[in-house]
Amino acid sequence: xxxxxxxxxxxxxxxxxSIVEAxxxxxxxxxxxxxxxxxxxxxxxxxxxxxRDFLKYVGFSxxxxxxxxxxxxxxxxxPYVLQPEQIIPGVADYYATTVFDGFDFANLLVKTRExxxxxxxxxxxxxxxxxxxxxxxxxxxxxxxxxxLKEPKVDGKDSTWSAVDLKIKSSLADAKAKxxxxxxxxxxxxSPSTEKLIAEFIxxxxxxxxxxxxxxxxxxxxxxxxxxxxxxxxxxxxxxKASLIVSVGADFLGDWQGGAYDTGYxxxxxxxxxxxxxxxxxxSNMTLSGAAADKRVPMTVAAQKQALVQIYNIVAGASVPVxxxxxxxxxxxxxxxxxxxxxxxGVLVSGIEDKNAQLLVLAINQVLASExxxxxxxxxxxKGSNAAVAQLIKxxxxxxxxxxxxxxxxxxxTLADSAAFVSGLKKVKTSVSFSLKExxxxxxxxxxxxxxxxxxxxxxxxxxxxxxxxxQPTIRPIFNTKQFQDVLxxxxxxxxxxxxxxxxxxxxxxxxxSWNKVLHDGVAIVGATTLSGGAIDAASAANAVAKSxxxxxxxxxxxxxxxxxxxxxxxxxxxxxxxxxITRVSWDNYVTVSxxxxxxxxxxxxxxxxxxLNGSYATITVDGIKLENVPVIVQPGQAVGTVGxxxxxxxxxxxKEEMQVGLNAYALYKSFNNVQSVSIAKAGGVxxxxxxxxxxxxMGRGDIIKETTLEIFNTKDAEHWNEKPMVSLDHQEVxxxxxxxWESFDRTTGHHFNLSIDLNACTGCGACVIACHAENNVPxxxxxxxxxxxxxxWLRIDRYYSSESTFEGDNERKEGIAGLSSSLSTFNxxxxxxxxxxxxxxPVMCQHCNHAPCETVCPVAATSHGREGxxxxxxxxCVGTRYCANNCPYKVRRFNWFLxxxxxxxxxxxxxxxxxxxxxxxxxxxxxxxMEKCSMCIxxxxxxxxxxxxxxxxxxxxxxxxxxxxxxxxxxxxFGDVNDKESKVAKxxxxxxxxxxxxxxxxxxxxxxxxxxxxx
Length: 1016
Prior knowledge:
Layout: E1 5-8, H1 11-15, H2 17-24, H3 34-38, H4 51-58, H5 62-68, E2 93-100, E3 105-113, E4 116-122, H6 134-138, H7 140-143, E5 153-154, E6 157-158, H8 161-178, E7 181-186, H9 192-204, E8 208-212, H10 219-229, E9 244-248, H11 262-269, E10 278-283, H12 288-292, E11 295-298, H13 301-316, H14 326-342, E12 346-350, H15 355-368, H16 386-398, E13 401-407, H17 411-414, H18 418-425, E14 430-435, E15 447-450, E16 459-461, E17 467-471, H19 484-492, H20 498-506, H21 515-521, E18 523-525, H22 538-546, E19 554-560, H23 573-577, E20 585-586, E21 591-593, H24 595-601, E22 605-607, E23 613-622, E24 625-634, E25 642-647, E26 675-691, E27 707-709, H25 710-715, H26 718-721, E28 726-729, E29 732-735, E30 753-758, H27 767-776, H28 783-787, E31 796-806, H29 807-815, H30 820-830, E32 838-844, H31 853-857, E33 863-865, E34 871-873, H32 883-887, E35 894-895, E36 931-932, H33 938-950, H34 963-967, E37 973-977, H35 984-989, E38 994-995, E39 1007-1010, E40 1012-1014
Parallel strand pairs: 7-8, 7-13, 9-10, 9-12, 10-11, 13-14, 14-15, 19-25, 21-24, 27-40, 30-39
Antiparallel strand pairs: 1-31, 2-3, 3-4, 5-6, 5-15, 16-17, 17-18, 19-26, 20-26, 21-25, 22-23, 23-24, 23-26, 28-29, 30-37, 31-32, 33-34, 35-36, 38-39
Helix pairs in contact: 9-19, 10-15, 13-14, 13-15, 13-22, 15-22, 16-18
């Protein structure tokens, strides 16, 4: 049978079902603010306005149309006087480039219109293996950030580049004369040309040194790899080659060691020929990796260290004593035995920040001879050294550093001991910060040097050994900026620009490929050498790890959120409004606690009458450092004895007021250790979250998530695990899909579009959500509006928890109740949130139903069906009755309450001329008072058809794309024409795992889901 488990979205849904039930049945949870909506409070005053008068305003009258829907502005366009020959109005150009900002990296295609970069796409050419995550898709908005540093500043005053150049040269000469030390402090560069340039700088300035600093450190793993393989790099795991994956505290589907592992992982997660990979996850916080795992075991980091030694004992045949709770030991032994049996098809990864633990990881994978673990093509995207940064702070405070030049770092914000850094910085004669913004560091240095955005820059990158990528500008610099490398060239006395330097030097890295070829493709494969490792003293490492002690009563586990990462995108409203995949909270960071610990500490969450989520405040203290009034989220699956807190929030400098949210958790990131001993106590007050977990829920609507186990999938017919809904027709049970209330049209002629979504491959990463925002000009509404259930996301990723118990099991327990007291106790137990729930992600957008219930109730025919399967919206016709939203079973329509464009009430990118440069001219910007929703990117399908027509050929399979399908790096979303029977989407639609959402309603959607299979 298909899954009959009990699904729930939040702890509050289980513990206060009456409010959640009311919210579920009420599309608009607050009263309509008619005074704001109509803009005339006096006319609607209760003293003089009758019901008849009110209906004149909001009924089907000319007034309603005028007031609510007809605010489309008129713009007069000015043509080119001399049109650039390379720009054809209305036609997009694409440029291959590669991005690395010190934290995120990807091989990209940048879409430009009339010279404006407007969209990030994935480069799919051979060798371009890294796809854009949500942050990189949103990074294009940073190009048009009006708070960027626009001019160089010297001593806080606007200056010129010639003055900056002169001051730096003068300081370097003075340092050389006085024997003072010069330090270049940068993030990991991963750029062979820049590193060569720095080496030339150090050769000319023997008193200089280069210190690499990563805000979120991978130093322990780097130290371990360097000790064994002689190179400071990280393993680039290929999870597609693993049939068994064991992770101990590594969120490899998140940001662990740079992330970007989801493509390979998803390849093994889709059942093929009766097989799929198996995944064990041992962790503290609930992560994307834990959510995807077949077996997840929540445990403290101290217990994870013991588990790692236990795995080593079993795989390597060692006998290091371990101290592991029996309830954990059973699961750890089971995982270790299966890992050993898997041999070369198994792989172990760990996120424990401990050199000895990372040495054990290397040793275990060597014993396994794991195919997923390869030293060829090691990752070059983390090079930071904790020891070097600690020494720098000592040197600063000792007064031995004369000149400090920083690029790509913000240590005043990201260092736990930033006060020590600031005090040392005051002793430096000349301090320079190359930065996009006048951030916390740039605002207190001698020279603040504005750098261009990566879309305005030249550069090269070696993300992994054996690959070479180029970064090229897609627009001329918007502000008076200069690259760090150009200034270094000037200081070195090297003539020409960095572009000239790059072009001359690139031949040494391209293995014979021409400059133009690499520039066109964006990446070149030059071949990687497998590193031969030295001996590992695994026994000593295992003993050291086994002797480690627990952090205290509570462990604080610091992590980076899918939205904001390390915090450098804090001024990006797309990312601030992006709901966290696990908690579904936006515009906040918070401390996550288990249900058991929350009850001990008196902490709680509740959904209030308007649908908003409220939570307690807590005070958390680490080694004397106190964070007060930290909001609390009670997180199912959080390990008892641990709490989680996200880095990247709490910034103030160079941010719009709306983006100054959360608390700075870097203050607790002592000694670059993401695990700290913490004390936690309840504080007064109630925090109001912008959380969408209780909004637009489909719970209680029948089969939403269908799932089964691999064993049942392999041994039972599809009718058993993908049950078809049945209805009665002429007193006979027939499949619901065979019964129609309407006559069907012939859809076999021309194109007919379907979108396939595989629940096995979806990791909840959210790249599709941001790509949809960028492509379709989706507005940002802000925290207050999200809290009122008014988020405008055209695509949402629902996250469901499921208990191990089944509906049938619940029914049996209910039937066994005897008496009132038994009833109260039994129901109380049944309503408790699961300590370790299973998780499923489900992207939901307009289902583009062939029998769409929205179309039949629209009084002005604003929503109608196209012959190619898309449900269309004519915004100019829409008068905002919202009947369509009430009649939509999927809750995917969004009412545009306000004018979000050019409105100071919504001071985000659409409120200034620079920010609006990111808007897609192929999609109109909607005015208030209309319904909007996913259009299945009709502008993209039309452009694809026109391109093929102009080239005199049929459209090829895979050419049709939507914003979400092209952004999906895991392959969960496949879009195409089902009338092409050889297309991938047609085969997926006919697959035995396919089903439609709420199939029993009879809407016949054009979005197809695939049953989730768990390898338990």
